[in-house]
């Protein structure tokens, strides 16, 4: 098979695996691996254990995906693409219309309420807060905290992690501290976090493994306390809180944070947790001064 044909085949295979045509409407489906995030069991084991069961089935699937197509299969792929190419925009358009309609209404209302609002917004940003939260769609940072545009620099990822080898998170922190001079850094987790739950599930989650291992490490660091909690939900909630505190520690380990605090007296680091059941933020009362002092015994980067 030529390189071009192979490339076209891989593309069509990828499309088939990402969409289903169960009705006239084409809807994106969750990848098999990602579905574990949704279906992770509520019961959290007292310790983590690895499993290789799904990795074997994964290799079988991969083998099947890369089998050379017959000419008739290629023809079907082409027909599939032609048939559904027309329908896809209709499905996408519904959401886009709703979003753009809302955007227009919002922009008009903002300008009416505060003439010149967007002219001021375009002058630049000087946010006081850097918000590091979970990507969970139910926790829009600005809305739950009542922060207006321009008041918070926001970074979100699965389970609000601050891994020191994650270029994205590190760049956001560096920019927020050294260039935007934020006064507060908030790490905000939430009870019922699917990422935390998935990390405590003894399954191979593919590319998510190295990311979620940061949470397994939090469990290992606090294994004694967590294992002593009998109730599963209580133990899970405590892991959510401990994960927030450990991510605050990771923020405090950064040179930019330590140096800015030594020179300016800010930023201050806070650990909060959001609850779906009441919509409230809980302050985990991270003692920033004390945390910084302990961290600097080993991670002092102020020179
Ligand atoms: Zn989450």
From TrEMBL:
Pfam families for this protein: Pro_CA
Catalytic activity: hydrogencarbonate + H(+) = CO2 + H2O
Key words, A-Z: Lyase, Zinc
Enzyme class, broadest EC rank: lyase
Biased composition (Basic and acidic residues): 74-85
Ranges of compositional bias, category Low complexity: 49-62
Transmembrane segments: none
Alphabetical list of PANTHER family matching this protein: CARBONIC ANHYDRASE (PTHR11002:SF51)
Name this polypeptide is given: Carbonic anhydrase
């Amino acid at each position: 098979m030529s390189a071009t044909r192979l490339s076209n085949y891989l593309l069509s295979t990828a499309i088939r695996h990402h969409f289903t045509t169960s009705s006239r409407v084409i809807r994106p489906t969750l990848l098999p691996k990602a579905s574990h995030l949704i279906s992770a069991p509520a019961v959290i084991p007292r310790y983590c254990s690895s499993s290789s069961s799904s990795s074997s089935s994964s290799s079988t699937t991969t083998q099947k995906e890369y089998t050379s197509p017959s000419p008739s299969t290629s023809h079907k792929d082409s027909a599939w693409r032609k048939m559904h190419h027309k329908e896809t925009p209709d499905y996408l358009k519904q959401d886009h219309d709703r979003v753009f309609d809302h955007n227009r209404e919002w922009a008009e209302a903002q300008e009416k309420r505060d003439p010149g609002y967007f002219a001021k917004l375009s002058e630049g940003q000087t946010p006081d807060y850097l918000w590091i939260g979970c990507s969970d769609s139910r926790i829009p940072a600005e809305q739950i905290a009542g922060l207006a545009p321009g008041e918070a620099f926001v970074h979100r990822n699965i389970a609000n992690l601050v891994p020191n080898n994650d270029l994205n998170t590190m760049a956001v922190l560096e920019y927020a501290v050294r260039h935007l001079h934020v006064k507060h850094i908030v790490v905000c987790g939430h009870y019922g976090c699917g990422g935390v739950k998935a990390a405590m599930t003894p399954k191979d989650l593919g590319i998510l493994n190295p990311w979620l291992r940061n949470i397994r490490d939090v469990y290992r660091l606090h294994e004694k306390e967590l294992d002593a909690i009998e109730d599963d939900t209580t133990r899970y909630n405590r892991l959510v809180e401990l994960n927030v505190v450990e991510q605050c520690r990771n923020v405090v380990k950064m040179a930019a944070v330590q140096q800015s605090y030594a020179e300016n007296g800010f930023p201050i680091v806070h650990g909060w947790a959001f609850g779906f059941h009441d919509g409230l933020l809980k302050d985990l009362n991270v003692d920033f001064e004390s945390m910084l002092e302990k961290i600097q015994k080993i991670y002092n980067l102020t020179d």
